[in-house]
Structure formats: structure tokens, C-alpha cells
Amino acid sequence: MVEFWFSYRDRHMEYDEFIEHVQEIAELDSVEQAVGAVEATLGTLGEMLSPKERHDLAAQLPKPLKECFSTWMERPPKELTHPHRFNLEEFYHRVAARSDVRHRAAVRHSRAVMQILRQAVSEGELRDVLRELPDEYEELVNGKPRGPASPSIVEKR
Description:
Blueprint: H1 15-25, H2 31-47, H3 51-58, H4 63-68, H5 88-99, H6 103-120, H7 123-132, H8 138-142
Helix pairs in contact: 1-2, 1-6, 2-5, 2-6, 5-6
């Protein structure tokens, strides 16, 4: 797996750079596939965050990425005061459906997006996001499955 050694504290990541890194880490064939993975992952994450946390997270990202957080909102984002709650397996299911890929690809894409997001925002902001998510989401952010029954574990072919 490729790792990038810059962080929010060093410099602000640009949109094209974010997409390019996701494409490389997720081993996607095109920029369009990377954009789809980013939109599906951030849009699904946005459903689970409070309006304040969505705003705070989006404030550290380039404008096109900010818009991803409200892609699948049932109502305008500011009106959604009670975020959805679903487990990590459902998260992957939604990402797969929204980006038209299989579960294995959704896991790989989501993990790539979160790896780059982790490097694009401050550590404090990432901690704030994790506080709003069920504990099992830590494995999505950290890239390490919590156990053998984790929905993040997929067989390689």
C-alpha cells in the first residue's frame, strides 16, 4: 500500500491531489472512478455526522469535496439534526451501491478515501469525527480490522 507523508499541518491538500492519491491507493483505472469512490464515501460519511461536524470537516477540504457530504441527504444538510446511524457493514453496502461496485471494491475504495482524508485534515478534526461514529468505524479510519468478523476483511483474488 502506498503511503503519503504530508499532513494538514504541512499544507492544505488540493482537490486534484486528493483524487489522484485515492486513485493510486485504491488502484483505480480512471479519475472518474476515483471521483465516484470519493463522492460515495464522503457522502455516506456525511449522513452519519451532525451538521456542525459536517461543517467543521468540510471547512478543511477543497470546495468540490465539501459538496460531497450532502450528496445523499434527505433534507437540506442544515436541517438534518439527527444523523443516520448504521453499522460499518451497511456503510460499505451504501458505498458499493452509490459507486456501482461490489463489496470488496467498496471496502478498498472507502479505506483509500479515509486514508487520504486522514492526511488532509487535522488530527483534532479526525478525533471529533470519530467521536460521532460507532466504535467499529475506527478500523475504517485506521485501516486495521478489529477482528476476524470485521466487514473490512475481504478475500483477495
